[in-house]
């Protein structure tokens, strides 16, 4: 799939080109598209969205870091000039083709990757990272507090209008519950669900709006609702469902609870500027960022989670994520709290700060490129012998 939106700058010349090169993961694509679209809106540059088809490459991507060897033929055909000025992408699979595009452009294309990259920092123009990846400080690295998204105040207002009638039978105050799933060192299982139900049942009147995600076991949301003594709406995630009420829950809940495994949902919940609580899934004692950890009376755990925790402690940083670093950042700044333990102030967040930082960085990076190019042209022109007599 390739989508294009052509624009021109105020002088009537074609604007710069942005390519948003999507990955295999929907979470990464949410961030890629959010940044690319915001950059296009603010700058007036044109945007093309490219979805690539891959063939098995695996370790080959690490051994051959530049090239199209990981793509199917039709995907290779989609990578044609005119080459972009900026590529925004993510994931190991996209690194070789994106670097190939930059090579074809004569080095003019700027590479912007999100999350974690297997490239060296000096091989990238910009890496927009968040704390869980533990990326070392570098001039080409922008450390944001949370992941990027497109949840603006206007979008939330529109979602509230759209879903108001749907949730009219669920009285306030409404508590929105956003459930992720088992990932890395975390297990979202019966113990966590019972702990969450006990908390919700102690909150008095009102209702609960529950949304699951792609990683949530199919019946987990319903099992939580069965334990509650108050009205509960449950949505079980379905791929490609255009009737997903997740936007309405973000917009209409009076406060939000997010399972601690999902930084993406936590980032989106924070954008609402409502009280946000984190459901602690009990991996802090294994965190590289919090060696003291937190006392746990009980937690869900399985073999996969135990192995991941061991890798966090003894393995290379590139092999794992440490999500507790994001939790600690939010807790220390008073922007979120552990469920049932802290009162979370509202209005202390700077909405859109991470997105603004990324967009400004890219625009400044391209402006610096223009200055360098002009200086090079001027030096070259000065060195040319005069042809006049």
End-to-end separation in angstroms reads 57 Å
Give the topology string: H per helix, E per strand: EEHEHHEHEEEHEHEHEHEHEHHEH
Going across the major beta sheet, what is the strand order? 1-3-2-4-5-6-7
CATH class of the largest domain: Alpha Beta
Q: Give the radius of gyration.
A: 23 Å
Q: Could you give the count of β-strands?
A: 13
Supply the number of helical segments. Answer: 12
CATH architecture of the largest domain: 3-Layer(aba) Sandwich
What would the average pLDDT be, to the nearest integer? Answer: 85
Principal-axes geometry comes out as globular
User: What's the main sheet like?
Assistant: 7 strands, mixed
CATH fold naming of the largest domain: Rossmann fold
Structural class: alpha/beta
Number of separate structural domains:
2
- Helix amount, in percent? 25-40%
**Spans of 5+ residues with little confidence (pLDDT < 50)?**
1-14, 288-297, 373-389
Strand content: 5-15%
